[in-house]
Each structure stands twice: as C-alpha cells, then as structure tokens.
Amino acid sequence: MIFVTDLFGGEGYVDLSRPGDEIHSLIVIDKLLFAGQSRYSNLWRNCVKLLLLPVQAVKLRRILDKFPNRVVHAHPMYYMALCLMAGIKYVGTPQGDEILIRPGRSRLYKYFCRRVLQEASAVIVDSLQMKNGIEAIAGVNAHVFQNGINVDDIFQYRMPNKRERVVSIRGMEDLYRISEIVEIRNATAASTPLTFIYPFADATYLSELRPHFGPQDNDLGRLQKHEMYRLLSESLLVISIPRSDSSPRSVYESIFAGACVAVTYNTWIDALPPCMRSRVFVVDLADSGWLSHAVGFAKRIVEMPFLASEQALELYDENRSIGKVVEKFY
Q1: Strand, coil or helix: what is 170?
Q2: DSSP character for 13?
Q3: pLDDT tens for residues 217-227?
Q4: Domains within the chain, CATH numbers bracketed
Q5: Closest by alpha carbon to 77, among 45, 54, 106, 109?
Q6: DSSP-derived pairing of the beta strands 260-264 and 235-240
C-alpha cells in the first residue's frame, strides 16, 4: 500500500507516518498553515487547499501514473475531488460533516459534493445515516462498513481499576457542545470534576470556555492512543453529545475499554449489539439532571466488566472491518 498526501503535521497535528511507509507527497502545505487550530485556521486551510487544487491534481496524476494496476481509495472529500479533477477512478470515503452538515450550509458545496459522489466507482461510509444522506444528495447507493477500532490494543489496557473519571472526549468546538457539558456540571453537579481530552480544538472556543472550568478539572488535550486507552480504562463515564454524528469511533473505544457512555440519541445507537448498547445512557438535554442521572447509571453499569460478543467484534474490530473492505473493493 502507498500513501499520497499534502499534509503531515500542520496546525499542531502529530505526524502519523511510520518508518517504512511508502509515502508520495503532493505539494505539502504544513508550513503554510497556522500553528494551531481555530475558526480562522480552518478558513485559511480551506482557502489554501482550494487554490492549490488544480496543481495538486496534476501532481497526483503524475504520481499515480507510475502505478497502472492501482485501486485508489480517496478520503475525505477533498481527495475525492482531486481524483475527479485528475481523471482518476476512485473509491471514496467522505467524513460525517461533509455529508450531514456542509451541504445544508452551501448550495455550491452541495453541487460539487453531488458531482464527486456520483463519479466515484464506489462510496464507503460508516453509518446508515451517512448512507441515507448520500442517497438524498446524489442518488448514490453507498456501502456501509465500520472503520473499526484497535480492539487488541484497547484490551491490553483494561484492568480492574477503580473507575472515577468523567470524561469529555470529542473535539473542543461548538459542534460537540462542550460548553453545555461544563454549564450543566456547574449548575447541577459542581463537585464532579471533568477530564477533557480532544483530538482537535478551536483555540478561540477553548479560551472562552476555560474560565468556566472547575479547580479540579483536567484539560489534557490531545492524547496518543495508548494514553487515551489507559485513561478510558480508568473512566466511569465518557460524554459525547454533538449536534450531529454518524458513527463515533471514540464512543466505541470507550465502551470496549469498559466505560459507560452518555450520548444524545442518534441512529447509530440502534445498530449496536446488546453488549455495547447496555453501556449507553441516552441523554435528554432538556432534563437539567441528565449529568447526575448518567453518573448514577454509570456507577451501576461499570460494576459488570464489558464482554465483547462475537457480533461486536465482527462489526467493530478494525482488522475484520478493513479485511471486508479489502475483499470487496481492492
């Protein structure tokens, strides 16, 4: 397998490439980006990518012409658009907000989104909600496969620890309603410390929220996977209440690590095997006591160790799910 990218570690991201990976670079934009993430850095990054789109398409074509017997899996939407512009056949995997949020905000984006989806030889998504969204936008029948999680690594960190942490695990930005978590905790459960971990942050949003953190709150930011798995093995309750969601990998990781999760209702919940569904507390945000209720539920649930069923492993073990994608499309 070879990788083609224009981004390695910009905006504070960790470079995920490993020694031995075969990577071919487009015009790398890391040094053109802001040092951190914010609303302004997102806007600037999108402008840079759009300006470079024609040049990147030419470069991509030159790289891939060296590999005539290829299957190109492009993700997210930007790389699907690159392949379309370069005249290259591709299997595509868009991200959740690229289907569930952005088309509703811009007719122009929706038009290009439709074109990119319709020109793909196949589209792979991780939830029925995404599949239905693509059908509505482009009339394309997408294939549903879970991206999967690293079950083996998670199980290495599962230990009979005393579980006390209440964790916010999603991105530190408005979409994930972190401020609502802090607000309800301050109003109804002030003695409950919160631990914040997040894969990315809007710097402005975080700076505005920090003054409302409690003295015992823990802002840990972005963790390496092994650090996150260790923390989840110590967690009582993990909270994920975004405005929109498709198939939340971090929630699945939390369940496999033995924690209880508090989530707002979404259709992905209905697809969970019973062993996973039993550890889910569905939050009603109109109930001012939802956090206290969720903590009480979690204290009862985590007394029972999580035992993954064969159905859960078949759906969410990344080795199995990737194997299915390779067998069908590669």
Answers
A1: coil
A2: P
A3: 999 999 999 99
A4: 2-147 (3.40.50.2000), 151-314 (3.40.50.2000)
A5: 109
A6: parallel
